[in-house]
Amino acid sequence: MSTPLQTTDDAVDRVRRALEEQFQSMASADQAIRQIRNEVLYGFRAYAGTTFTTKLQDWTTRYEEVQRAYREFHDRLGQGHALINRRHDEAVQLAAAFNPGSEVAIALSGQ
After folding, report:
1. Among 47, 56, 83, 87, which is disulfide-ready with 37 (CB 3.0 to 4.6 Å)?
2. Which is more confident, 53 or 110?
3. Contact 56, 40 (CB under 8 A)
4. How far is it, in rounded angstroms, from Cα 102 to Cα 84?
5. Nearest by Cα to 55 from 66, 69, 40, 71
6. Is the pLDDT of residue 92 over 80?
7. pLDDT at 59 over 70
């Protein structure tokens, strides 16, 4: 038996806010790495410096992919929660349309 879906606006909002805080931390880390890469790129003219900046550029590219995935998750979480809320509201409206003695209400109640 599966657990029914349970969600609250507050819980989803907390997760989305935590993700938004993470975005800020990620942006700071990305900026720091780019600054280090630029300092090495323009301050060191040696093979080791070139290798290091190439590795940092690779890291930056992959980190951008992670940031995009976080943003996509954040956006889809909000969209999914909004959809769940709309469908719940529709279900409540449909349920309200049946009177307690109707065949549909009896069938849904399992009597």
Report:
1. 56
2. 53
3. yes
4. 27
5. 40
6. no
7. yes
CA distances from 6 to 3, 105, 108 (A): 8, 23, 20
Do 98 and 105 touch, CB atoms closer than 8 A?
A: yes
The SS3 assignment for 106 reads: helix
* Region 12-24 average pLDDT: 93
Q: How confident is the model at residue 111 (pLDDT cuts 50, 70, 90)?
A: low
**One-letter amino acid of 73:** F
- 17-25, long-range: CB < 8 A, 24+ apart: 19/70, 19/73, 19/74, 19/77, 20/74, 22/70, 23/67, 23/70, 23/71, 23/74
Q: Rounded CA gap, 34 and 42, in Å?
A: 12
First to last CA, the chain: 21
Whole-angstrom distance, CA of residue 106 vs CA of residue 30: 59
Question: Residue 44: CB partners within 8 Å, gap ≥ 6?
Answer: 52
Residues in the chain: 111
Model pTM above 0.85: no
